[in-house]
Amino acid sequence: MISFVVKRALAAFAVLLFATAAFAQDFPKHPITMIVPFAAGGTSDVIARTVAEQMGVALGQSIVIENVAGAGGSTALARASRAEPDGYTIAIGNAGTNAATYTIYPKLPFTPESFAPIGMVAKTFGIIALRKDFPAKDLKEFIAYAKANPGKINLGHAGVGSSNYLICKSFVTAAGIDATLVGYRGASPALTDAIGSQIDGVCDAAASVSQSINEKLVKGLVVGSTVRLATLPDLPTSAEAGLPEFEAQGWNGLFAPKGTPPTIIARLNAAARAAVETDAVKKRFAELSTVAPDPDEHTPEVLQKLVTRDVEKYRKMLADEGKQ
């Protein structure tokens, strides 16, 4: 016979489940904030704005972008981790902000477990681009120049811990060169300095640098992909350029604070999935040389596996960074 206490506990649990389900069904009642860990104009920002617009359509509420730059994205993720777990504050992240950062900044006020994955929304491709007057016409000449001038070449990125920083690290490691990596508060200001020849080049994603390459404001050197990009047909892959070890294919995913109800996560996931399948997002992604996830890659579980994999991957690659 079930005791009175157990009956009350079961009844309370049933009420809680009902309230949670009702809340999810009613969600969202007002605009949602999507935190972008970098300055406006960079890869994560462009992807976030593209996806957020169509997610808002699917949810029937607007999604407001909030750019929170600093510390390679960890400033933004700290803010996101402290937000109410009600679905009204979410963040876009990547392998830098949500995996490598734990090695680079070992005393962060959050951990991978501080976030509930919503789903992957984009796959990106890393590019090395140089100022248009740099004295090297291809990758072979660039590496020769860098080796003859150790430490003198400077490459900009979106801040230590960003995905662009990881592109830089992967590139200089594969090329075996000594280059100075210069951190900015986002990809856009780094690219601006490369265009103005204030730095020698940038490590960036196709989403934010391809237009500048096509307009000949900077010159593309190599893409860390196995296939050429449709928007940059003349840019060689790393294998074609003679450096197959350089791989720079990344991802962007959405995260909510830990404790966000699964029903809310499911609602946001469905909206994100619907967004990347719209013609508007497909068209914009094509222009950005960005790829939407495959049908079986949309789930929170897939994003969680990517985070777990990349935390370990960059722990090994960046072990020395955490000792600084």
From TrEMBL:
SUPFAM superfamilies, alphabetized: Periplasmic binding protein-like II (SSF53850)
Q: Does the keyword Signal apply?
A: yes
Q: Where is the signal peptide?
A: 1-24
Keywords assigned by UniProt, alphabetized: Signal
Q: Does the keyword Zinc apply?
A: no
* Gene3D superfamilies with a match to the protein in the record: Bordetella uptake gene, domain 1, Periplasmic binding protein-like II
* InterPro entries (UniProt xref): BUG, Bug_dom1
Q: Which family does it belong to?
A: Belongs to the UPF0065 (bug) family.
Name by which UniProt lists this protein: Tripartite tricarboxylate transporter substrate binding protein BugD
* Native species: Bradyrhizobium cytisi
